[in-house]
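Ticket closed. Logging final result for Alpha/beta hydrolase.
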Amino acid sequence: MTQLVFVHGVATRAGGDYDTTVRNRTRLFANTVFENTNVQILNPYWGGESPTIDQKIFATASVDNSLSLNIDKPAGGHDGAGKTVFGDGLSIIAIGSQSPVSAIDAILSEAVDTADREARQLNDEEVAAFKKAVNLIDEGRAQSVFAGVPDEAAIAKRLRDEDEPRAFGLVSKIGQAVTAATDKVKNAVSSVGSKVLKSYSPAVGLFLGDVFVYLNAGETREAIRAIVLKDLHEAYDAAKAKGEPVVLVGHSLGGVILTDLLSDPKGAGLPDDFKVAVLFTVGSQPGFFASLELIAKRENPSGERLKLDCVGAWYNVFDPIDPFAFRADGHFKDVEDVEFDSVTGLMAAHSAYFTRPQFYARFRARLIKHGVLIPS
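Final structure:
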């Protein structure tokens, strides 16, 4: 059995939305990555330690009093023939002809997001399609979904797993996700220059708030560390008893917290023989905050890069358009920065990693590479 500890990031608060997100993410890990092996997934929740921010301070995007960019033409994409596509011509099919992995990500991410919004578990059709998408990406066959310029119904049919019992409803959730993904692409284009602007203040404010709370030495920081350490100890005890691997995933500030603890495991109170098979920091900032000497301070004044000695392999995953993600190899050695492209909005990129089949395909491949998983 593998011990997996997932440390969440900023702006995460308890409630029905959080419970649904954790439940669906856990199911995707279990069904797509650890399908043929046992796994215990721990999800330490530290968001409750951060103070509540009055939402009124974020009311900065007024429809009646705003400056419009007044852009005449929206940004466009390209169709399969290399022609520029605007407006109605821009669809998930057009994107799929150029970047099938990104298009599949967009469709399945929409399915997961819909389940989260509806506060329900992913149904069997959605999980089966997600699993099929992971396998298609892993096997290099993502383009088969869009071969022959299909319509939306054909794409949905190709993504559904025909080996699964058809106990689904009359309306295909995957078909709805394909349509919704196209609508989202069109809406994103048509809203350029519109006065109806979505304020990014809440996302940025909550990010900064949680970061400042953690980086400010004191009781709250120690309380957050204690919550994460509790589950690290639990994973360690279970792994040591049976000779099992420990895998850690830290999203956003969760990656910073893990890097902070693992850079000085003895000082953090971890056992002397605490070992991590593979560490994933995703959409995270350990390299940025370490360069500011806010975490993982260098003891060697020569400027030599730091190494996390208790970590076997470290992958720092980032989407180039994620404004809250940074490289780590400038401050740390033996870390591989992994670029992760997507078809999503600027702010959505930060939270979309774990709703996309591409992530799980790469995650599984890395675990196989390092002997945590055995190829099926």
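The radius of gyration is 21 Å. No further action required.
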